[in-house]
Amino acid sequence: MELRTLRYFVAVAEELHFGRAATRLHMSQPPLSRAIKQVEAEVGALLFTRSSAGVTLTAVGTVLLDEARALLAHADRVRERVSAAAGVATLTVGILGDGTDPGLSRLADAYRRSHPGVDIRIRDTDLTDPTCGLRAGTVDVAVTRAPFDETALTVRTLRTDPVGVVLRADDPLARRDGLRLAELGDRRWFQFPRGTDPVWQSYWNGGRPREGPVVRAVQECLQAVLWNGTVGLAPLGHELPAEFVVVPLDDMAPSRVVAVWNEGDANPLVRSFVGIATAAYRR
């Protein structure tokens, strides 16, 4: 049983959907299905129950998933130790947004425990680059928010957060339990500098062109709201100063926390980082 085939199995087992697993693996669905059937033949038992309701793991599949994860993690550690023997192993991680996110704290703790010999370098970036330096080649992997242009990148969703509009506490709309984007059509919205990823800009402008002050950082966004009454958007659940209120947007697509790395990057440090990040954000 090859490591590559085990990675295919783990992807299907985690996604519980052959189409999503194929997308995650950057392959078409037929060869993935054939690979899973080959694993089932080698094991001598069905690993998945397929029905009109979806895909579920069998008891045998559940056991294999635990063993496959352990085996793949060990294989990655072997590669890392070999790399470390040739020199100091270093992983540069780009981070966008709130560094106090509990998922990020869990990720840091888990990665430090499992990779004590790896030198982690953090690059904290502003809102103008949602890839946190990945496209510029200054980081190996990033924990950021989508959507953005994903060309030549691989993206793994870690968590989804509902989004609200950030208003001054004395704004007439601040007393509402929920709002819709159309109710904010006459407001000024913050803008990112010219040249910022248009997919990223469009999302934080509610999907349409807007006008407003240009900002680069979270604090600049908050000051624009405070001083000018500008509309800002933010994921729900983040604490803000008393001067601000976040009202849920009922028709706004959620914001995805994602791990992103360069397509085709075979660095085992990146692979293990993404695996640990996926587990840390599930808690």
Structure overview:
The chain has 283 residues and is α+β, with helices and mostly antiparallel strands. It has helices at residues 3-15, 18-25, 29-43, 59-85, 102-114, 198-204, 218-228, 268-282; strands at 48-51, 54-57, 90-96, 119-125, 141-146, 153-161, 163-168, 232-235, 244-248, 255-262. The chain contains 8 helices and 10 strands. The strands form 3 sheets. Strands 4-3-5-10-6 form a 5-stranded mixed sheet, with helices on one face. Helix 5 links the parallel strand 3 and strand 4 (119-125). Helix 1 packs across helix 4. The longest helix has 27 residues, at 59-85. The protein is globular and about 65 Å long.
Tell me the radius of gyration: 22 Å
How much of the sequence is in beta strands? 15-25%
- Spatial arrangement of strands, main beta sheet: 4-3-5-10-6
State the end-to-end distance: 31 Å
Number of strands: 10
The percent range for helix content is 25-40%
User: How many helices does DSSP assign?
Assistant: 8
* Element pattern in H and E: HHHEEHEHEEEEHHEEEH
Structural class: alpha+beta
Describe the global form: globular
Q: What does the main sheet amount to?
A: 5 strands, mixed
Average residue-wise pLDDT: 88
Low-confidence stretches: none
Feature tags:
283 residues, three-stranded antiparallel β-sheet, 8 helices, 10 strands
Describe, in short, the structure shown.
This protein is an alpha+beta fold and 283 residues long.
Sequence-ordered SSE layout with sheet pairings:
Blueprint: H1 3-15, H2 18-25, H3 29-43, E1 48-51, E2 54-57, H4 59-85, E3 90-96, H5 102-114, E4 119-125, E5 141-146, E6 153-161, E7 163-168, H6 198-204, H7 218-228, E8 232-235, E9 244-248, E10 255-262, H8 268-282
Parallel strand pairs: 3-4, 3-5
Antiparallel strand pairs: 1-2, 5-10, 6-10, 7-8, 7-9
Helix pairs in contact: 1-2, 1-3, 1-4, 4-8, 5-8
